[in-house]
Amino acid sequence: MDYRAVCRRALEAKACFHAPWLRGAFDAVDRELFVPARAWAPERDEHGRWRFLDRDVDEDAWRRAVWDSHQSVITQLDDGRTRPDGPADGDFTSSVSALDIVCTKLEQLGLDAGHRVLDIGYASGYHTALLCERTGSERTVGIEVDPQLAAWGASNLKSAGYAPTLVCGDGMAGVPQHAPYDRIISTAAVRTVPSAWVRQLAPGGVIVTPFGTAYANSGLLRLTSRGEKAHGRFAGGAAYMWMRSERPARALNVPKESTTRSSPLDPAEVLEAGWEQDFVIGLHTADVAFSHRGDGADRRVQFVDQAGTSATIVRYRDWWQVGAVKSWGPRDLWEQVVAAFTWYAAHGRPAITEFGLTVDSSGQHAWYGDPGHPLNTDHS
Questions:
Q1: Active-site residue among 69, 94, 95, 97?
Q2: Cα–chain-centroid distance for residue 346?
Q3: Which of 73, 60, 74, 75 is nearest to 3 (CA)?
Q4: What letter does residue 247 receive in the DSSP assignment?
Q5: Which parts of the chain register pLDDT below 50?
Q6: Burial level of 343, CB count in 10 A (0-12/13-18/19+)?
Q7: Helix 147-159 vs helix 126-135: angle between axes, to the nearest 10 degrees?
Q8: Model pLDDT, residue 157
């Protein structure tokens, strides 16, 4: 079976080759050269573990996963602590991204043949190879924080005939020694766009990065340089792994004393309406994370702030009764989430593309409509 041809047809049907150079790059770069013989598919097996892919055991299944247009191949779990020797649990920490979102990101980049481009988080090297096809190896720079991944990706690129400039280091710092860049693209999500990226952009340069908050990691951001600042809109959705230093905190240090009350809303209305609503709520409550606990009559949702000083638990059952909401610390996090939901509903449930971000010397600022309408995100 020619899975590469099947993938090509799927990408064409989804209009993923809207930028014509992407079709040529897809044809030129053999994705199989950048996927390890042993990896995982992001789907559970019958035992609830990530499905294992082993080219030597089932080459057909491995190739089908490699050329799946809508699914990534997981190449690392738990920062490499979990070895690729069978089905496993664990957190995804590196992958060869799904081709449809790769094409979407690269189209948003607006990459011309003469541009100098920085690829942040090159890992396997596949994404960097696509960039090299457009700009040439001599105008392509890549950085990867994980030494093992950096060496592997460099080897893959060399074997495939590409010779970009590669650096092992923290992508949040960029690569200033090879700046300025016309384009910067990240393959991992950030909660804070580094000012270093903005400083390393050429005038009119573009940053494309997955962007999220502790509440929801699902946006694709496109920023354009305007002097010493950059601003732009969210182009749509993109769920990527976090940049390592950007992972939300999990530690809690809340007081034992708590307060209780009823909820004004069924939690399901706020938390089960899809990723776009979650993303907008997250722009208002950027430092709040949530997770579900229990099931059935015992189903609850827990909210924590990134300082670890406040937590709130909301009970789904009988949410209207006193005691359904229990809070520790100085902030009632459910109150803040509901306030963000109310704002969203009052403004007609606007699409993610109605929101944007400005990054300047004072930090980053989310806005609605245009930069003159900043969102109130101060919950201190």
A1: 97
A2: 28
A3: 60
A4: P
A5: 379-380
A6: middle
A7: 50
A8: 98
